[in-house]
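Example record

Each entry pairs one chain with its bound ligand, adenosine-5'-diphosphate.
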Amino acid sequence: MNLILLGAPGAGKGTVSKSLVEKKQMVQISTGDILRNEIKNGSSLGIQAKKYIDAGDLVPDELILGIVESRLNEDDCKNGFILDGFPRTVSQAEGLKKMLIKNSFKIRAAADISVPEEILIQRLSSRRTCSNVSCQAIYNVISKPPKTDNKCDLCGSELIQRSDETEDAIRHRLEIYTEKTAPLISFYSQTGEYVKINGNQDIDSVVNEVLNVIK
Ligand code: ADP
Ligand code: ADP
Ligand code: ZN
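Structure tokens for the complex follow.
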């Protein structure tokens, strides 16, 4: 069982993915997490990606498609994967379609976690992320505080506000979402894979709606 999670920045894709990983033993493929890992490792991919991420722009499609293609070739994807934060452009969706055919993978649905913009801004400005890049657990100072102030419940590392989480970068990312990513709603409506999820409810209810789609 494979799933695409669509939704604006802050909609809850990462949070829902991590819950599905626990409940369904699926693997999470988060292009954002992979890119932050590459930056931390100082790889040439990371160096190229950093300037786009810090500005709140999208990383070029060719780089992203390369990352996803090699990740999909890893063995654990055969147990089912969740694409979190990919595709983000129509061109990425077209590239994905080719990769899926090539690997004989099928997608159950493109589940779009839908949340009003004013809530997205609130969530992004109160999001905190574990600074340990091999963890990247997601917290929120309002809706999901850690048990110990500013420390990750899972690994004890410090929680940080991401460097692309300034007010200007957040606003810019939401504009880019509307311009480049929202067209995927009509893309996946045409393929019959589109399902809208109400993301403006408590996290367990959002996860249950997604589980209903994939059961
Ligand atoms: P958020 O959780 O706020 O939506 P992500 O962690 O998914 O953010 O992504 C952070 C940044 O990484 C994006 O703003 C963008 O610069 C880059 N990025 C991640 N995934 C993609 C993608 N599929 N295409 C282009 N850029 C991406
Ligand atoms: P995305 O990956 O789509 O950018 P995240 O999963 O990182 O979104 O969630 C953004 C922020 O909102 C995080 O701080 C997270 O704890 C919080 N959050 C996610 N889902 C909900 C929800 N249903 N209700 C309240 N807060 C949420
Ligand atoms: Zn952690």
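Residues 180 and 205 are 28 Å apart (CA to CA).
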